[in-house]
Write a structure and sequence with these properties.
Helix content is 64%, strand content 2%. The chain contains 18 helices and two strands. It has a two-stranded antiparallel ribbon. Helix 5 (93-101) packs across helix 8, helix 9 (151-161) runs parallel beside helix 11 and helix 14 (231-241) crosses helix 15. The radius of gyration is 48 Å and the shape is elongated.
Length: 368
């Protein structure tokens, strides 16, 4: 009846718990799935279905609400004891991990995030996927052309979970260089991310790159959004290559590239120091200008004193602040003499010649 599915599923799981299902029950569940399309019907039977069926159901099983992925992986990749009988696993553990990487989100209709979560769960299930199994799966995927989209992501995660695999990782990166991994933009980005996340562990591998490829990834000479190393890591690589810690021979083209990295760093430091000094000087100049503006003019004329000086002189001359009084009096006398000159000229106008010279002489004497 309608609404009885949850009860039936619970009864099915109880019947199959540790028991080998009959062929009639398996066929009945297949028919139920064909009619309903609900993958929950077949989930308890995965250990007895065919491998083809399981691979077809895998995208749905990964998205099924409440799926216990660790339990699912154990059913698929670990020996089972059902009804007192030993049942061999359907998948080898490495084979199952590779199968998870071969799920295509676009083709199989499963979100990429769900595939990533499934792989992460497998990497954190050492009871089913121990370190040697993970390394074996990575080696198998390495032979794929092209590499699975999540390949380098899995390598990074595996080396983080199992640091003892780092020697294996160094060998893997060397083999990827021989396969020109930089031609696959996504995998090349993961390659460089692994270098960045591993400090100096894989610096010797970088020195194996062809000089033009190394130049593009440490100097960003490629352009076009090509993946490059972080600036700090490139500088660490250049310093490491010239240090006693490096026991590898550095070829001349590579040495020139790394020397360029060091030279650019020195130029950047010099430019930063100059910019900081200019900023300090500008701040000091602004502070000095603000101090001058706050203090105001040192000397200001008092309007009342100026008016009193003009009113008291009677001659229209006022004492200018900052000039001696004697100098102002001399200027006033010169003005009075200049005003009397026309009258003297009129008085002597009728005399014999030379009056002008005498006037000029008198004027000069008066000035003296």
């Amino acid at each position: 009846p309608a609404g009885a599915e949850p009860l039936l599923l619970h009864m099915l799981e109880s019947v199959l718990d540790g028991s080998l299902p009959t062929s009639q029950l398996v066929e009945a569940c297949r028919g139920w799935y064909a009619a309903s399309g609900d993958v929950k019907v077949l989930a308890p039977l995965v250990s007895v279905l065919s491998k083809v069926e399981v691979m077809r159901l895998m995208p749905l099983l990964l998205q099924m609400p409440g799926t216990n992925l660790k339990a699912l992986y154990k059913k698929l990749a670990a020996p089972q004891t059902l009804s007192g009988q030993q049942v061999d696993p359907m998948f080898g553990a490495a084979e199952l991990l590779v199968a998870l990487h071969n799920i295509d989100p676009a083709r199989d209709g499963v979100p990429l995030r769900a595939v990533m979560a499934a792989v992460d769960t497998a990497l954190h299930s050492p009871e089913t996927f121990p370190q040697q199994v993970i390394a074996q799966a990575i080696q198998q995927m390495e032979a794929s052309v092209p590499l699975p989209p999540l390949f380098m992501r899995t390598v990074i995660s595996a080396l983080k979970i199992a640091p003892k695999l780092k020697p294996f990782g160094a060998e893997l990166l060397s083999r990827l260089i021989s396969k020109q991994v930089w031609l696959d933009k996504a995998q090349w980005r993961g390659f460089l991310m692994l270098i960045e996340n591993s400090q100096r562990t894989f610096f010797p591998v970088l020195l194996q790159l062809p000089a033009p490829v190394l130049e593009r990834c440490v100097l960003g000479a490629g352009g076009g959004g090509e993946p490059v190393l972080k600036r700090a890591v490139s500088l660490q690589l250049a310093n490491w290559a010239s240090s006693p810690e490096n026991t590898m021979q550095v070829l001349l083209p590579v040495r020139k590239i790394l020397d360029t990295v060091l030279a650019q760093h020195q130029q950047e430091q010099a430019a930063a120091a100059a910019a900081a000094q200019a900023k300090e000087q500008a701040a000091a100049a602004a502070a000095a200008a603000a101090a001058v503006a706050a203090a105001g003019p040192d000397i200001k004329a008092e309007p009342e004193e100026a008016v009193a000086a003009v009113d008291g002189s009677g001659s229209g001359t006022a004492e200018v602040k900052g000039e001696p009084a004697q100098q102002q009096q001399q200027q006033a006398g010169a003005t009075s003499l200049g005003a009397a000159a026309p009258a003297a000229a009129v008085t002597d106008a009728g005399g014999a010649g030379g009056g002008d010279e005498e006037f000029q002489l008198d004027f000069d004497e008066d000035e003296e």
